[in-house]
Design goal:
- The complex is a heterodimer of chains A (654) and B (94).
- Chain A contains 23 helices and twelve strands.
- Chain A starts with 6 loop residues before the first helix and ends in a 16-residue tail after the last helix.
- Chain A has helices at residues 7-30, 34-42, 46-57, 60-73, 76-101, 107-112, 118-151, 155-172, 175-203, 238-241, 330-338, 370-373, 388-404, 409-412, 421-450, 463-471, 473-510, 517-541, 547-561, 563-571, 577-596, 599-606, 621-638, and strands at 218-220, 231-233, 247-252, 258-265, 270-271, 274-275, 279-283, 285-289, 295-298, 317-319, 341-349, 359-369.
- In chain A, strands 1-7-4-3-2 form a five-stranded antiparallel beta sheet, with no helix packed on it. A five-stranded antiparallel beta sheet of chain A has the order 9-8-12-11-10.
- Chain A is of the alpha+beta class.
- In chain A, strand 5 and strand 6 (274-275) form a beta hairpin.
- With 94 residues, chain B is mainly alpha-helical.
- In chain B, helix 1 packs antiparallel against helix 2 (59-81).
- Chain B starts with 16 loop residues before the first helix and ends in a 13-residue tail after the last helix.
- The chains are: A alpha+beta (654), B mainly alpha (94).
Chain lengths: 654, 94
């Protein structure tokens, strides 16, 4: 898809991003004194911290990924909204106050508060690094996705830009500025998302008859091979014959362009009172990559467009109830969606033939009823499968989402920025309110994007900003800028958590290297640069994956590695230091190994056949989270009982 | 770098063990209520009953919104029921 670079939009974007970065530097200067740094530990007001929770948590995955997944697959994206929010219940009811009471400043400190164990510090620090890196990938992918429509720059430019800015922020500022940046962008994200939803409801739904696209499109009898005047059917090609879908290819004689169509089951029962034939022909879009790397776009590209113009923006309703073509209330809008029919876009890579080397991906529309759009199972198709492994895959994901939030290191360290348990509790409630409101809005934004006529079929992550563009280039710029600052805020928090694990836990506590405060800061800055550089590389490698799906993996690793240790430390007195260290390492390694060997990774990362995977389903949580608990219990029972706690159960502060 | 140089985040004053235990009990009760609601949702999804038409749309939409609303309502209930420290600190009342 080609994008017009809009100077004014770029200006709005630049102003918002510059303000955010400026705010970060200003507050960073305020916090250069020791007392300023200390205030970050306990001086953040609970309301600010609560909204900052939203700013920290509502990452690129929530904004870009969920909206994109809903726009492409309907309700399945909303499952992530539900799971991400449900995780906060664990954080509030089980983790928040006890964790705050442990009175430390990294996640490893909390786990180690009763034991003074280098093994725990090592395991927790490695886990923090692994989870932070996994969580960084989707943020960087999201940043890259934003750059193309806004500035016409390729994906890697966005990834490098956000990486450089964030490294700069983190090495020059810290948690005080990060908190206020997250407060600022968390508030903006919720407000602008609400504005977007109001505009969606005011616009209502509108339908567009696909028959207007081309004479090739329309109802067709099964087996009918007729060709409309002005077109010639192309000869069969072995690569196309191997396709799973029922494609046909035609040469448009006036323009010499090749159009690809697909036959799908008829999406309407009758037309003008006549019962329709059983099939319907719709236009597809194709991208062919030559062995030299040149991309050839064909299909629905207008005849007057340049061949490099790319693919057409898509996303529409084929039919809607007449009463839905006006402003709707929130409930009425969903009712209208249920009674409509939409096009959802799917893709099929064709086999690469020997001697040719071209690889072609076909993007084809799939008429889908509104009822099906609002029912889970379009993405997680295993839910409807008779195969129990497929169903278990879905249950495993929902378990990981539920358990993952309270295990994320960059979220956990935010409990140390308020003064006491009461403030931790209140800030979590504010966070749940802000985040919950946002997640309700994601369903409307995703459905609005689905019918916006602005979707890029090759990139689900851009659905929300392109939805904004369908209203106004100014709104597009503002939403893109907020999404970009969202990435900045989350990535800053992740890099702080990761560099803290390196300097404070690995170098300071495990290796016992004595450093001055100045030395610690210097090493931490170096660690931030390294972590940021690794994140840039991974963000470029994982460009094509939906960001919220990637975050699902990060949640699985966090929940498997960290949650069993946290829960058992708080609620089982027999827990030993060996048990905690073993549970963290086993949970982390098993979940990482599971992900690397899973069918989804085979398909989306390695480009191999998913059937070759030795893992029966892709989401590890349902196996690796219980494995973490089991490991902790067994190892704790096999090792000596822990020493009694100091008086009043308080950990010793060093 | 904040988070690396500052001292311990604790203010040094904590809820009394009795208050902390009471809050933890309330938290666990509310947690298990929510777990039941969430597990019900996942079970309905696997059983395929979320497509059941209800209120103009279907059960999936209402149950999903309900889970988000329930999280906030239970959080408010928790906030109301929980007590803070029983010592002489008065900051919480401000």
């Amino acid at each position: 898809m080609s994008f017009d670079v809009n100077f004014q939009a770029g200006l709005v974007f630049a102003v918002i991003v510059a303000f955010t970065v400026g705010l970060s530097f200003y507050l960073g200067r305020q916090a250069k004194s020791a007392s300023g740094f200390f205030a970050a530990g306990g001086g953040i007001p609970w309301f600010v911290n609560g909204v900052a929770f939203a700013g920290d948590y509502l990452s690129a995955a929530s904004f870009l990924g969920i909206c994109g997944m809903i726009a492409f697959y309907g309700y399945d994206g909303f499952l992530y909204s539900i799971g991400y929010l449900a995780g906060w219940v664990v954080a509030l009811f089980v983790i928040a106050e006890p964790l705050k009471r442990l009175g430390r400043y990294t996640f490893a400190d909390a786990l180690d508060s009763k034991f003074q164990s280098r093994g725990i510090k090592f395991a927790a620090a490695i886990s923090t690094l692994a989870v932070s890196l996994f969580y960084l990938i989707p943020q960087m992918v999201g940043a890259g996705a934003l750059m193309r429509p806004l500035f016409g720059q390729p994906h890697f430019v966005g990834v490098i830009t956000v990486g450089v800015i964030v490294i700069f922020i983190v090495v020059t500022a810290g948690m005080v500025s990060t908190t206020y940046v997250q407060f600022f962008k968390g508030g903006l994200l919720v407000i602008f998302s609400a504005l977007l939803v109001v505009l969606i409801l005011l616009r209502g739904l509108s339908s567009s008859d696909p028959s207007n696209d081309s004479p090739l499109v329309g109802p067709i009898a099964e087996g009918d091979m007729s060709v409309p005047p002005g077109y010639r059917r192309l000869a069969e090609d072995p690569a196309w014959e191997a396709a799973k879908q029922d494609y046909e290819r035609f040469l448009e004689l006036m323009t010499s362009r090749v159009l690809t169509t697909i036959r799908v089951p008829n999406w309407r029962e009758s037309y003008a009172g006549q019962t329709q034939p059983s099939q319907y022909r719709l236009l597809c879009q194709t991208v062919t990559t030559t062995p030299q790397g040149e991309k050839i776009y064909a299909g629905a590209v207008p005849p007057d467009a340049d061949a490099s113009a790319g693919l057409l923006p898509v996303g529409r309703a084929f039919s809607v109830p007449s009463e839905a073509e006006s402003a709707q209330g929130p409930i009425g809008y969903l009712g209208a969606v249920a009674d409509s029919t939409f096009e959802l876009w799917r893709k099929e890579p064709l086999p690469i033939l020997e001697g040719n080397g071209d690889s072609t991906v076909v993007y084809y529309p799939q008429p889908t009823s509104g009822e099906q759009v609002l029912t889970p199972g379009n993405y997680f198709s295993g839910m409807r499968s008779a195969n129990p492994w497929d169903r278990l895959n879905f249950v495993s994901l929902m378990l990981a989402l539920f358990c993952g939030t309270a295990s994320l290191p960059h979220i956990l360290i935010r409990y140390y920025t308020v003064k006491d348990e009461s403030a931790a509790r209140k800030s979590t409630i504010v966070g749940i309110g802000s985040i919950g409101l946002f997640y309700v809005l994601t369903l409307y934004m995703g459905l609005g994007a689905m019918t916006s006529g602005a979707i890029d079929v090759t990139d689900s992550n851009m659905a929300a900003p392109l939805l904004a563009k369908s209203f106004s280039p100014w709104l597009f710029a503002a939403i893109s800028a907020i999404a970009f600052t969202t990435v900045l805020g989350t990535v800053s928090g992740l890099i702080i958590a990761a560099s803290g694990a390196v300097v404070h836990d690995l170098i300071g506590s495990v290796a016992k290297v004595q450093m001055s405060d100045h030395g610690k800061v210097r090493v931490a800055r170096l660690a931030s640069v390294v972590v940021g550089a690794v994140a840039i590389v991974l963000g470029i490698l994982f460009q094509k994956m939906n960001v919220t799906y990637l975050v699902g993996w990060a949640f699985s690793v966090a929940a498997s590695a960290n949650l069993p240790a946290l829960i058992m430390l708080l609620f089982w007195k027999r827990t030993t230091k060996q048990g905690i260290a073993a549970a963290v390492l086993v949970g982390m390694i098993s979940s990482l190994a599971w992900i690397l060997l899973a069918g989804d990774t085979y398909k989306d990362v390695y480009g191999w056949k998913p059937e070759d995977s030795i893992i029966p389903f892709s989401q590890p949580g349902i196996v690796t989270i219980p494995l973490g608990f089991l490991t902790l219990i067994v190892v704790s029972l096999l090792t000596p009982k822990p020493q009694p706690l100091p008086p009043e159960g308080k950990p010793v502060l060093r | 770098m904040v988070g690396l140089d500052h001292g311990p985040a604790s203010s040094g004053k904590q809820d009394s063990p009795e208050v902390a235990a009471r809050n933890a009990r309330i938290g666990l009760v509310l947690f298990f209520i929510y777990v039941a609601l969430y597990a019900g949702f996942v079970a309905c999804a696997v059983a395929g009953t979320l497509s059941m038409p209800i209120g103009g749309t279907n059960l999936a939409v209402w149950y999903g919104f309900g889970l988000i609303a329930a999280a906030f309502v239970l959080a408010l209930v928790y906030g109301v029921l929980c007590r803070s420290r029983t010592t002489d600190r008065t900051e919480d009342a401000k």
